[in-house]
TrEMBL record:
<dbReference type="Pfam" id="PF03062">
    <property type="entry name" value="MBOAT"/>
</dbReference>
<feature type="transmembrane region" description="Helical">
    <location>
        <begin position="89"/>
        <end position="109"/>
    </location>
</feature>
<dbReference type="GO" id="GO:0005789">
    <property type="term" value="C:endoplasmic reticulum membrane"/>
</dbReference>
<feature type="active site">
    <location>
        <position position="357"/>
    </location>
</feature>
<dbReference type="InterPro" id="IPR004299">
    <property type="entry name" value="MBOAT_fam"/>
</dbReference>
<feature type="transmembrane region" description="Helical">
    <location>
        <begin position="220"/>
        <end position="238"/>
    </location>
</feature>
<feature type="transmembrane region" description="Helical">
    <location>
        <begin position="118"/>
        <end position="138"/>
    </location>
</feature>
<keyword id="KW-0472">Membrane</keyword>
<keyword id="KW-0012">Acyltransferase</keyword>
<comment type="pathway">
    <text>Lipid metabolism.</text>
</comment>
<dbReference type="InterPro" id="IPR014371">
    <property type="entry name" value="Oat_ACAT_DAG_ARE"/>
</dbReference>
<feature type="transmembrane region" description="Helical">
    <location>
        <begin position="339"/>
        <end position="356"/>
    </location>
</feature>
<feature type="transmembrane region" description="Helical">
    <location>
        <begin position="273"/>
        <end position="292"/>
    </location>
</feature>
<feature type="transmembrane region" description="Helical">
    <location>
        <begin position="144"/>
        <end position="167"/>
    </location>
</feature>
<dbReference type="GO" id="GO:0004144">
    <property type="term" value="F:diacylglycerol O-acyltransferase activity"/>
</dbReference>
<keyword id="KW-0256">Endoplasmic reticulum</keyword>
<comment type="similarity">
    <text>Belongs to the membrane-bound acyltransferase family. Sterol o-acyltransferase subfamily.</text>
</comment>
Amino acid sequence: MTRKRKPSTPPASKEPKPTSSYILKYRPVHTKVSHSLLSPDAPSPNFRGFINLMILVLFVANARLVIENFIKYGSLIGMPGRNISGRDYVVTINVVVYLVFSGLLSFVFEKVAVRVRIGWLIAVNCLGMLVVPMFVVWSMVEHAGLGIFVLMFSLTLFMKLVSYHLVNNECRMIRDKKIDGEMGYPDNINVKNFIDFICVPTLCYQLEYPRTDRVRKGYVLRRVVELISSLLMIHFLLEQYATPTVQNSLKPMVEKNVPMIIERLLKLSLSSLYIWLLMFYSFFHCYLGIFAELTRFGDREFYLDWWNARDVGTYWRQWNIPVHSWLKRHMYLPLRRRGISGIMCQIVVFLVSSLLHEIAVGIPTHVIQGWAFMGMIIQIPLIMITDMIQRIRPESHLGNYIFWMSFVILGQPMCVLLYYRGWYVKNELIN
């Protein structure tokens, strides 16, 4: 009978045992394998101290810029809207009234479409919501900010009503084919349902939405205070910092002084970034949050963590969920169902988005030079490049750096300078 042998174990590292008559004075210091805290092999360290330092440095740097700006220009803050003419206000009100009337007409057409096919009337009415405001802003509205507001309101209502008509048309097709299912059509074609859809913060129509139990008055009040504070800060940054920087960039651009242009671009990038972040917060978090709470709209996912995007494509999918959902639902997926490849569908969507960006910026400024269009088109190769980097090195943050550099340094600030110069040249303010 053979005896079972105990499994062998690796010998443990032995530390010299002190004898009773002698104790070691110099005990071992290096007893384990460890990594430097800044090494990628190290466990996740806490960088809270460095974050505090960055916040402090950012505060000190901006405080210096504040003092320098006030020494150089003094206070430039004025009342919002002081340079808007009365004629612009009258024209804007008329356009808004026209858009409201067109929206009500869409509801009437949809009511008639339950029994009669009038698709061409619906299409003409929706197209008019884009074409008429574009023509009026181009020919009658002088103030660029007011023109942008009119076109954004027009585009929002257009996208909402296109979704409204397409979804109801699909419901009619299902009804005509006598497919079983609980749809609720045509009972949904009523005034209450229509007004509710116009008010809820989404561009995609559906017969029912997830709802919350009640309206929280405290939540609404906090969002209103944050919205007003953000808008006042945007006005302050525009008047005191962005406008002087843009005006001072005209001479270097005319003289083609590249170092000075770069200096102006970098200086504008700071105020442009702050303004854009405040606009994002005020609109997506405050404004849409207020309407969501008042209408008890349950889905509050208006944006995702786009700031962590490691490729440009992820940013465009996450920063504006309402528009992304509309484009995917009413453009991308229908094209895919027709057998068009995913890449071609993305290109078509970006072409349409590029055209709308050019309209929203070029028409109010009366400068159609294609800068906004090209800025969007350039996103296509950037998406491909950053997507390739992400596939090769999934843990790399290079794509995130490319996104921030292209968006903050070379994107918005450069477009602002180019459109401002074009506006100045068109108004013969420089030779």
